[in-house]
Amino acid sequence: METEGPTPKPRLSIPEWDKGDRPRERLLAQGAKALSDAELVAILIRSGTPDQSALELAKQVLKQTGNDLNALAALTPADLMKRKGVGEAKALSIVAALELGLRRRTGEQRERPRISTSAQVHEELRAKLADLPHEEFWVLLLDRGLRLIEVRRVSVGGLHGTVADPKVIFRCALERGASCMVVAHNHPSGQLRPSEEDVRLTRKLVEGGRMLDIIVQDHIIITAGGYYSFADNGQMS
Question: What's the mean per-residue pLDDT of the chain?
């Protein structure tokens, strides 16, 4: 009479692996760049089968496309589910992760607009500020090539003014690594000429920018009827 051999030990899911071999722990400790493509896919699929670990299954999934991530991204969930051990949840995780990577790469390739004239600043902010019944203060954060990083509202005030704190303005620039900036606010009254407070604030920002190596390119006042540029009128020195 033949005796049965030992029952095969089930393959372990990632949380049961030895700590040094777990891709998730390695990712936390060493960063995503330290992991192989197979280890990253293993994290997505989480668990293997009784015959294959998650990492071995990930290697088989990659082998299916010749270890080409672009080819892997072209597969549909149905394509992935043809492989034994890859169910719907695993297939959807892989497809979703690769789609996010594609969108990130596409977003990085978009050219950010270059803001080098007062007219361009006015065009960027006119719809946001021209018809408001109250004052708002905004900042355009730019890199060294004057490409736009972010447009951000700094403060909201009343009919006759708003508080624009230089510390808040420069904190915005430092947070985003901006090398240059343009500040702007609106005059609901329609008065294009700057007030004495506008002039003092502009000087304070220019001086503060020199100390932080951040160039304050211009200060724009926007109304429903047009705009006023400190730079165009030689008032940024």
Answer: 86
